Amino acid sequence: MKSRQDVDDAICALTTAELQALRRAAKDHARRFRRKSAGRDWKDLLQQAVVRTIAGDRPWKDEVSFFQHLLGVIRSIGMKSRQEVDDAICALTATELRILKHRAQSRVRRLGRRATGRDWEDLLQEAVVRTIAGDRPCKDDVSLFQHLLGAIQSIAWMWRESYKNELLECELAGCGETSPVEQFARPADQDKVAEVNEALLKIKIAFEADIIASQVINLLPLGFTAEEIQAGLGLSKNEQGAVAKRILRNARKILS
Length: 256
Fold this sequence. Notes:
By secondary structure, this protein is mainly α. The protein is built from 13 helices and no strands. It starts with a helix and ends with a helix. The protein has helices at residues 4-13, 16-32, 42-55, 66-76, 82-90, 94-111, 120-133, 144-173, 180-184, 187-206, 211-219, 226-233, 237-255.
């Protein structure tokens, strides 16, 4: 773990771009917890992340940059800690475990061959592992049981879409060959493709600190509808609308 002096030095060494990314991440997280924030805003959230690091409540590991550490702390505020998740897993009742098993079995049956050989145990295990790793953090006001039910559903949806995308890519590219689009595109078309890819990369970089917006941006080029993205990411209509407005507003600035 880093020392207090290391933390102080790292705070001073944060670049303007990193500070802007931290500000965006704090604003995004504060919006998601607006109803429970008791009047606190993104500045309070960012300050809390720094204070927790200095106090040692959220120690900064040697192998992680200070910028990445603060991003992780910001996103974890309002979420269950690793210890709380571990305790909640141990506290799951036999009835809750049976329900989770039944939900996972039901989802895998509906996936059929799209599960690509994975079974209900793989699905449930992925939901638990992603929760422990922080990829799918569990909110403080949500029981682990309810959280895992939702995680099982959204992970099964992503398995299905991943299968569809892999199948489509295989068909288009001849399972490893050059795709027809790339093979027959005129030079002018290829230039346009390069411009679009460059613009998309700029937008992705701009939203690196915004987890939800990044996921939406990654799914949009794959042909998902707004309803599918909303269901897959577990967003409410209001959250989906807010994310869409945020992406459009910032994309116009980037591309103007």
